[in-house]
């Protein structure tokens, strides 16, 4: 009886050991590499940070320009598989959107007597109302005149758009399908550097304009 009980107990222990081994993933025991898992985690974090940085930078740009670029970029670049005609179209798209970001930095808005928002283009004499239906009151003309800081903001907006374009994988794959190691470092560091510098400049010298594509004017 004792031998039979011992055999049953040994069989039970062996069964539980086999069950525990089956519950553990074989690939994790034999083929897992801590270094590869760490690298995958770092890559995922870098990608996540890239998307967050792009979102933050896009907040500094006209929404219409950013939306148009994001919609047309995969089409013009053929999802990164560029032919010569795709490169030409993509270059035109980037240049047009960059020019839009630069020029829209000089636009501003105000509320007329009825409370409706009117948009205009800042000049050295005041604000030229685009639709011409409600001219700016003379007492407010001085605050809407074009200033040196407007050119600084326009240039920074252009640089921020360049950073957003460099974050776009389709654009990068179109112009640099097989980048060298030095170019990869530049493509990784340059957008981040531009984003940090321009963000600091925008915080230090904030704009008071509420132009086309920007938040509505409270005034």
TrEMBL record:
Membrane topology: Multi-pass membrane protein
Keywords, alphabetical: Membrane, Transmembrane, Transmembrane helix
Pfam families xref list: DUF679 (PF05078)
Segments traversing the membrane: 88-106, 148-167, 187-205
Subcellular location: Membrane
GO cellular component: cytoplasm; membrane
Principal location: membrane
GO BP terms in the entry: endomembrane system organization
Signal peptide region: none
Family indicated by similarity: Belongs to the plant DMP1 protein family.
UniProt-recorded name of the protein: DUF679 domain-containing protein
């Amino acid at each position: 009886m004792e031998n039979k009980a011992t055999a049953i107990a040994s069989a039970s222990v062996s069964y539980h050991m086999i069950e525990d081994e089956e519950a553990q993933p074989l690939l994790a025991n034999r083929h897992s590499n801590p270094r590869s898992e760490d690298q995958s985690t770092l890559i995922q974090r870098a990608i996540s940070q890239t998307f967050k940085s792009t979102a933050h930078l896009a907040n500094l740009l006209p929404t219409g320009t950013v939306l148009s670029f994001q919609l047309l970029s995969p089409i013009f670049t053929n999802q990164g598989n560029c032919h010569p005609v795709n490169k030409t179209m993509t270059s035109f798209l980037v240049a047009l959107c960059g020019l839009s970001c630069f020029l829209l930095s000089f636009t501003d808005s105000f509320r007329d007597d009825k409370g409706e928002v009117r948009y205009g283009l800042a000049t050295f004499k005041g604000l030229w109302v685009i639709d011409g239906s409600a001219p700016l009151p003379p007492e407010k003309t001085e605050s809407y005149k074009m200033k040196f800081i407007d050119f600084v903001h326009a240039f920074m907006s252009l640089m921020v758009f360049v950073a957003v374009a460099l974050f776009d994988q389709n654009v990068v794959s179109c112009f640099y399908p097989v980048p060298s190691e030095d170019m990869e470092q530049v493509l990784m560091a340059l957008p981040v550097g531009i984003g940090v510098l321009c963000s600091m400049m925008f915080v230090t010298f904030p704009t008071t304009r509420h132009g086309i594509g920007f938040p509505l004017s409270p005034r």
